[in-house]
Amino acid sequence: MTFRRLCRGRGGYPALLAAIHDPPETLWVRGEAEAVVLSAPSVAVVGARACSSYGRTVARMLGRELAAAGLVVVSGLARGIDAEAHRGALDADGVTVAVLGCGIDRDYPAAHRELATRICGRGLVVSEYAPSVEPAPWRFPARNRIIAGLCSATVVVEARGRSGALITADFALEDGREVMAVPGEITSALSAGTNALLRLGATPVTCAADVLEAFGLPPQASTAPEPSGDAAAILARLREAAASIDELARATGLDPGDVAAALIELELAGRVVESEGVYRSTIAL
């Protein structure tokens, strides 16, 4: 495993990160991309580890569409929202950056080792911590200042009232960066943090175009053909609300086998995702 070091005050150190209140003296870097991607237009997509299927869908959609538009997607390699944002960017063959709260030689959590390898293939994994430094609870809030510091805007997808994602949003505000939030159900604890941000004046995110507008970028036109026949009917229903195969069969009058076949077509096209037997449209926002 090969590492590079970027030192504050020297060439290659990202200017946005250098401008925060407490920039790291050294940024350790690994991955195939050039360090210049750390200075490219970037957006942080963060949120709860124990997220809902809705949150996973939204995070992956945002990661995919923002990366497809040319933004670097930055997150923390954590379970839940962070991982889905990274995966979405990779789905679009885009660039994503993972910021660690441990030594640069560690993949944390270990379950995301394969994801970290994929990120290194197209983007970068970075840390302020040298090799062999163990993860510790206090390192992760410190890591969050780097996530916010690398980006012009931070998007919080889902967050409880005391979520670490809100720490990232606080750092972004302190640095004078834009904070954005995805509205959530008022009855869901996972939306308490994001809805509180909206009450405080965060920019609502109802689609990727809302984020692109903050960067002065036009919305991206879909290159995938619109589905037809059974798939079109099912997608129209899923745009209204998530549903199981049985619910879709009752709503559309189709045979469950035909519903299952159409869902496979829609999944392969990236139009829907499934979690615990429930299907959601990835373009419902």
From TrEMBL:
GO biological process terms on file: DNA-mediated transformation
Domain of life: Bacteria
Species whose genome carries this gene: Gaiella occulta
InterPro entries recorded: DprA, DprA_WH, DrpA_SLOG, WH-like_DNA-bd_sf
Annotated PANTHER family: PROTEIN SMF
Domain Smf/DprA SLOG, residue spans: 9-215
Family, similarity comment: Belongs to the DprA/Smf family.
Name listed for the protein in its UniProt record: DprA: DNA protecting protein DprA
Matches recorded under NCBIfam families: dprA
Residues covered by the DprA winged helix domain: 218-277
